[in-house]
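User: Sequence in, structure out. Go.
Assistant: Echoing your sequence, followed by the structure tokens.
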Amino acid sequence: MPLETCISNSVVSVCAIPSNATERHCKNAEVVAPDLVITKLIIEADRRFGDYARCNICIHGSDHHGNENCTDGEYVCSCGRDVKHPEPCTASVGVANVSQRYAGQKCTQGMAAWECWKLAVASKTGGLWFSTLQVGHCGSSQASACTWRLVQVVKRVRKTCSDNSIFKIVERFDQTQGAGCFQNCTGGIGALRNTSDPCWIRCFYSTALGADSGSPGGQIAGMPRQALQSAWEASFSSDDPAYLGCPHIRHSSNNNDHNNSNNHNNSNNNKNNSNPSNSSSIPRPTEALGSLTI
């Protein structure tokens, strides 16, 4: 379950009381836009990975990752270990180990619960982030090297549909194997749920991550990791709502949906057909690792 899902599912409540710490999330189109989609891709990548590119939307002249002079609404990508002194990114596909990336951060006294939940998600689910930049996109006129190419768009779903599938699975787990937390919330569950209700939000994370996961020193427990993984994959496994599946959104040239890809900040921003018609003519990475599903 990506960190964007963790943030967006709780951001409604924290945005009710604006602060400098939450502003970039509350106004981030990747988190709060009503037309977000999630795309599952298969790409072929060069095995010579580089630094993970921090690609974020500029808000109030800042990407909040070192660039304080950007244009609002544009994607800004930066690399290097020092966020305050970013370095230009190369054409290499970037990779970051999520567990290692957040290993040094702990939930401490005074931190908001949603910040602790974000760290708990990183600790529990782990995984890898990949960044695929235009400068490395094989066949692109803007590419300085050929480090990755799109093989297939497996499926594109609306984030609202994916969220609903995840919510249902977490609510069901609480009913059958959990503490029955949601039954104490005013809005209830299913079609009646109110995801901006602090009670519902706390129950969601208590069920998924453990009752104490939002507190300093709290144990990370809750649902089995595989159950969370299955909840995330449900929307891609079927088109049938009865099986918590989501319909595939076919690409059209007029589709302006914000693309929240599985790989976290897939910043190439290209709009591709499910099976690119010209894939056979696109150059391949020199030292291809093979196919990655992201």
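User: And one key feature?
Assistant: Residues 169 and 231 are 6 Å apart (CA to CA).
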